[in-house]
């Protein structure tokens, strides 16, 4: 049955600050997951039908962290996919998808920390955020997303240097 379900198209943001650290946010539905894998994640979200991924990633930033003050530095050259574990199929993602097909972007944050407003949405997805070294990302991910986070570290580590530019 799982193979009959489609992947949900999704975009994700690896948002770097001026010091080369990456924004992660704690899921509001997992407030006690301070140290647990999966409690903290990168901003990501579904795409509207026909939406350009480059437009979608900035929209998702605005919706999830309250600001789109960012510039795209790079786009991962392939769509990355993950399958939900069997116990989540039919429950997560509205029960309509087997997992997600994601287009990931590295972005430079152009604003100030005060521009990040998790309360911008009436139903915020996140309740806390912080900047972390990119190498910490795989350890924050739930098991089924860990390979994607490992790939993001490989693909975008060059932007983790202070002041790194697009390239």
From TrEMBL:
The keyword Hydrolase is assigned to this record: yes
Keywords associated with the record: Hydrolase
Gene3D superfamilies to which the protein is assigned, alphabetical: Nucleoside Triphosphate Pyrophosphohydrolase (3.90.79.10)
Gene Ontology BP term (one): nucleoside phosphate metabolic process
Short motif (Nudix box): ranges: 45-66
Entry keyword annotation includes Hydrolase: yes
Cofactor requirement: Mg(2+); Mn(2+); a divalent metal cation
E.C. code: 3.6.1.-
Pfam families for this protein: NUDIX (PF00293)
InterPro entries tied to this protein: Nudix_hydrolase (IPR020476), NUDIX_hydrolase-like_dom_sf (IPR015797), NUDIX_hydrolase_CS (IPR020084), NUDIX_hydrolase_dom (IPR000086), RppH (IPR022927)
Superkingdom classification of source: Bacteria
Domain annotation Nudix hydrolase: ranges: 6-154
One annotated GO molecular function: guanosine-3',5'-bis(diphosphate) 3'-diphosphatase activity
Protein family membership: Belongs to the Nudix hydrolase family. RppH subfamily.
Stated role: Accelerates the degradation of transcripts by removing pyrophosphate from the 5'-end of triphosphorylated RNA, leading to a more labile monophosphorylated state that can stimulate subsequent ribonuclease cleavage.
PANTHER family named among the record's database cross-references: NUDIX HYDROLASE 26, CHLOROPLASTIC, UDP/ADP-SUGAR PYROPHOSPHATASE
Name of the protein in question: RNA pyrophosphohydrolase
Organism of origin: Caldovatus sediminis
